[in-house]
Amino acid sequence: MLQTRIYHSLQFDVAEAGSDSLCYILVPETPSKEQLKWLESMAERFACTLVFVSGFDWDDCFSPWPAEGIKKGEWFKGSAGMTLSGLVTDYFPFLETGFRIVNPKRRLVGVSLSGLFALWAAHNSDAFTAVASVSGSLWYDGFPEWVAKHRLSPAVEKIYLSLGEREKNTINTRMARVEDATREVVGTLSAQDADVVFEMTPGSHFSALLPRLEKALAVILAGD
54: domain CATH number? Predict the structure, then answer.
């Protein structure tokens, strides 16, 4: 069953599976009909309630600290802390209460900048048992160094990261660091004995998203 709930500024498109297992997927735009059909099919396949969450101020909500933006004169504001607090204490409980999910086993999936946020959240909250970063913006200034100085929440049982094999081929020198930065983060997590899966996928940052999300779900929902 597919339902849409609006709460404050966010939209939740929910494919309900009738269990306390659920996975939030932070997406940049309101999902299309094709994406919603995919969500329903994946919820049935994995017996997990899947939720597309949209409506974010993307660059503001998911950046962990202030940094220079991609375009000249723009800045990432660094509001990830406020976003995480709001999701965990307000937005998620609102949704879960509405669907009578009593003991939620939450997973979090992010894409691009929300993929960076998902991995950052895995270090700063015990709300998730697994997280996935799909084409995560791990090139973000200082992020690999930050990961090296912090540890994952003990609640996090599995991490999945994927990156397109052509993502490093960009004229933006900061974003071109993405593969090196991602491999550095994977190395750090592995050295900390985290259960981390890293996968290079065909294509670029803007390749078809649903197949990449499906790969992420297959890893972080395995064993349910």
Answer: 3.40.50.1820
Mean pLDDT of 185-195: 97
Mean pLDDT, the chain, rounded, equals 95
d(CA 107, CA 68): 30
Cβ-based burial of 87 (10 A; exposed 0-12, middle 13-18, buried ≥19)? buried
Structural domain that includes position 79:
2-220
Average pLDDT for 177-196 = 97
Structure tokens at 119: 């991995």
Whole-number pLDDT of residue 71: 81
Question: How many domains is the chain partitioned into structurally?
Answer: 1
Residue keyed to tokens 């976003």: 83
User: Torsions phi, psi of 138, nearest 5?
Assistant: -75, 0
pTM for this prediction:
0.97
